[in-house]
């Protein structure tokens, strides 16, 4: 495909990740999904390929590549298996990014090389039982005592938090009270090997069954005072600006999933014969395929433009929300139509389209539901 924003390095990376996804992930994706297993082997290979440190600067052990490179990698992984794409997306944009952007030099030197080359994944803990979209309702607390934060509380539905490869988490916590009784929200980096840090894998889920989703509970966990990220009270600012970048990853996941489903539908529509001709030759299906291709192209163009804005230092929060909203909605539409083209065969477990149908569903919920994103976009437009 020709894209004016892509250079030769982007194309090379795309080919490299696509070959890896086809050769190493595709043969096992169905089984990992069926057994609901996170693959240490695949994640180790993705670390070795540099996919888990793409954007991080070389100074801290990263690949030093641009946002577009990262997005292309997530897109190519999601074209084959959303679970592996989710592992990579969460580690890069939610794990590494807030530390790289808001960390002190000492924090960056301490944490980032481990997350780049130490084969340790890092999680991002915003969601709690009583704080989903309403993240200001965080209940996890951190109290400063004798030079240490004492953390208590629980985070749920967290990516990369519970497998043996998880190294720790960046969490939003309540550190005090502001004027008017509002919570003072701050962000703390918590190592997994801290006593009182308890994790549980959530296996019984509809989608991303090959990714690590879990919950973490903090019971009197002691954290060095120096692990405060940014200033006290900057919690929302850090977490929400991290989500701007994270939304680009979800958009890339939607784009990749849609592409994978579309390619499968194209193939099947050409080979399945009914009433004496390939079903793709019936105009209703031809139009479906044309609509799917159009939506994918539009999602891609807008996402790549948003990456360009980010890489060139322009504000991109509104566009990231739009890209995530659009890609996740067209992913649902494209995968749904692709499955329709497969007929009953598409409903069978042995057909990957069935997994794609489940895997896309989270995209309209995680990192800002579609309803919340419409509110975010409206606010950017000046509508209260
Ligand atoms: C597989 C998976 C991985 C995840 N990974 C992470 C992670 O790594 N880190 C993390 O912190 N979280 C993670 N999450 C959590 C995810 O970000 C939340 O599920 C999401 O933010 C929505 O919160 P909620 O599910 O509590 O929904 P709620 O906020 O309870 O919303 C329920 C419904 O109400 C609607 N709603 C809520 N408020 C409003 C409003 N003001 N106006 C209109 N409608 C509204 C929502 O749009 C939604 O339709 C993950 C979730 C899953 C399933």
Layout of SSEs?
Layout: H1 8-35, H2 40-49, H3 67-78, H4 82-102, H5 105-117, E1 121-125, E2 141-145, E3 148-159, E4 166-177, E5 183-191, E6 197-201, E7 213-224, E8 228-229, H6 235-271, E9 273-274, E10 277-278, H7 283-311, H8 317-342, H9 352-359, H10 370-380
Parallel strand pairs: 1-4
Antiparallel strand pairs: 2-3, 3-7, 4-5, 5-8, 6-7, 9-10
Helix pairs in contact: 1-3, 3-4, 3-6, 4-5, 4-6, 6-7, 6-8, 7-8, 8-9, 8-10
The structure holds flavin-adenine dinucleotide.
Residues 90, 94, 123-127, 132-133, 157-159, 208, 213, 362, 365-367, 369, 371-372 line the site of flavin-adenine dinucleotide (FAD).
Task: Please characterize this protein's 3D structure.
Helices cover 51% and strands 17% of the residues. The two termini are 41 Å apart. It contains ten helices and ten strands. The strands form three sheets. The protein has a four-stranded mixed β-sheet with strand order 1-4-5-8, covered by helices on one side. It is globular. The protein has helices at 8-35, 40-49, 67-78, 82-102, 105-117, 235-271, 283-311, 317-342, 352-359, 370-380; strands spanning 121-125, 141-145, 148-159, 166-177, 183-191, 197-201, 213-224, 228-229, 273-274, 277-278. The chain is of the alpha+beta class and 384 residues long. Helix 7 (283-311) runs antiparallel to helix 8 (317-342) and helix 8 (317-342) packs antiparallel against helix 10 (370-380). It binds flavin-adenine dinucleotide.
